[in-house]
């Protein structure tokens, strides 16, 4: 009951901010509401790995109310980040972009826009299944069935993903990627921030504690630059209440100056009320 209440409080806070754009919270938004105990009942399936899904004490903080953009500390445990990084090793191929105006299925490699490698992580796997359910719980969903497979993405020196949307701006189909998570599995690099160029203000002002996570050397007029930190994640809602894609969810994976960054994409797919 305590676990469900904790998850429900977070879900209600996110929904409230999404629809009303005004929630009286303490500094860093959700921090007062919960150090969330995102526990699931998943058990390892078909695996000899000794791993218990258990409880992960995630700490969510609002970066923005419009669009809903939440920074999450400790979304992944060190063991989970390492396991997912190793699991991805044999599955990488060149990353693609959507090449069709109708759906996400027709894809192409375009090195001018996106230079990286993507690994779709296999399931069943105890850690993959646990993390997918944790992402579903965070949104107040009882099941992870609407979530796509987890996708690790690896950026080496000089690689980047220029500004793009996770939702498809070309189609009028009623289903799309409603929400996005982006967690960090490896940050042995310089550069590689996640840039939201149209988010030009931060919830709760310019308190310097944000600089633990953001590149505060960049002026807010350029948007926010979120530094890669292993285990931490971003969550955002891709659509407005009226079902149209939110233009301020435009984001980019900035070039890795040196080293390697590995992220983890988690998308929830569903109806958007788009007309």
From TrEMBL:
The keyword Magnesium does not apply. It holds the Pfam family 2OG-FeII_Oxy_3. SMART domains: P4Hc. It comes from Phialocephala subalpina. It comes from the Eukaryota. Residues 67-269 form the Prolyl 4-hydroxylase alpha subunit domain. InterPro entries: P4HA-like (IPR045054), Pro_4_hyd_alph (IPR006620), Pro_4_hyd_alph_FE2OG_OXY (IPR044862). One of its GO terms (cellular component) is endoplasmic reticulum. Keywords: Dioxygenase, Iron, Metal-binding, Oxidoreductase. GO terms for molecular function: iron ion binding; L-ascorbic acid binding; procollagen-proline 4-dioxygenase activity. The keyword Oxidoreductase applies. This is Prolyl 4-hydroxylase alpha subunit domain-containing protein. Its cofactor is L-ascorbate.
């Amino acid at each position: 009951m305590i676990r469900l209440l904790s998850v429900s409080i977070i879900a209600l806070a996110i929904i409230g901010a999404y629809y009303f754009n005004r929630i009286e919270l303490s500094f860093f938004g959700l921090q007062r509401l919960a150090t969330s105990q995102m526990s699931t009942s998943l058990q390892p399936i078909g695996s000899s790995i000794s791993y218990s899904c258990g409880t992960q004490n995630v700490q969510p903080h609002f970066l923005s109310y419009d669009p809903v953009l939440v920074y999450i500390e400790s979304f992944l445990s060190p063991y989970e980040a390492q396991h997912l990084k190793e699991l991805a090793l044999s599955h990488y191929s060149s990353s693609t972009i959507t090449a069709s105006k109708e759906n996400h299925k027709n894809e192409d490699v375009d090195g001018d826009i996106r230079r990286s490698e993507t690994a779709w992580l296999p399931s069943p796997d105890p850690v993959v299944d646990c993390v997918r359910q944790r992402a579903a719980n965070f949104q107040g969903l009882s099941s992870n069935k609407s979530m796509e497979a987890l996708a690790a993405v690896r950026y080496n020196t000089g690689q980047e993903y220029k500004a793009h949307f996770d939702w498809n701006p070309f189609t009028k189909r009623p289903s799309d990627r409603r929400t996005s998570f982006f967690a960090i599995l490896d940050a042995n690099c310089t550069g590689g921030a996640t840039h939201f160029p149209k988010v030009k203000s931060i919830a709760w002002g310019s308190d310097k504690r944000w600089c633990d996570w953001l590149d505060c050397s960049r002026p807010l007029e350029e948007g926010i630059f979120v530094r890669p930190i292993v285990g931490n994640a971003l969550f955002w809602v891709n659509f407005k209440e009226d079902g149209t894609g939110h233009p301020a969810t435009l984001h980019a994976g900035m070039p890795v100056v040196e080293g390697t960054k590995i992220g983890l994409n988690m998308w929830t797919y569903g109806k958007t009320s788009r007309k």
